[in-house]
Amino acid sequence: MFQLDGGVPAELGPLSWLLGVWDGTGVVNYKVGDETVSYEFGQRISFSHDGLPYLNYTSYTWQLDGQNTPLANETGYWRLSRPSHPADAGPAMLVGDGDRPYTSVEQVENLRNDNEGFDIEVALVHPGGVSELYLGQVKGPRIDLATDAVMRTATAKEYSAATRLYGLVEGHLLWAWDIAALGQDLRTHASGRLAKSD
Fold first, then answer.
1. Which of 3, 9, 103, 121 has the fewest CB atoms within 10 Å, i.e. is most exposed?
2. For the residues of 92-146, what is the DSSP string, one character each?
């Protein structure tokens, strides 16, 4: 059974170890054809909540090139995957009907999957015209994700699939991101190591 910190909605319990601001560095190492793109970057990730059963997520990265040239941003939402309930808000700004489900640790524990983890959904948006929907699971301090859908605008660069791995190791948030893009199959793209700063 997971532990719940005060003020955190019960549905966020399995993801609550992510809450806060994380700062650190990482490396991009992506092979396109015969060329390998490789450089170091800085990163700040924020996970927060506003009392609703999902995490707000933002990531900002910059090249460690002496000028801290902006690199990439992404924003999105992380939540447990579960059946919708009449009390859930939405779609759009519609108010739910009745008492909210999964308000206790015991109720959330009933959502555990056959692997003793919790299924999750992550929706991310990139300013370059790409939106990703990831499905995966959180099991203790480890998260495994794979894209279920990638949507691109007509002007976005080619990008078709991705996997991500997050883990809490000795107080640091470690992550790895593999992508299939620019005509390449799914392969290593980037990884990082971040420490909680807030």
1. 3
2. TTPPP-SSPS--SHHHHHTTB-TTSSEEEEEEEEETTTEEEEEEEEEETTEEEEE
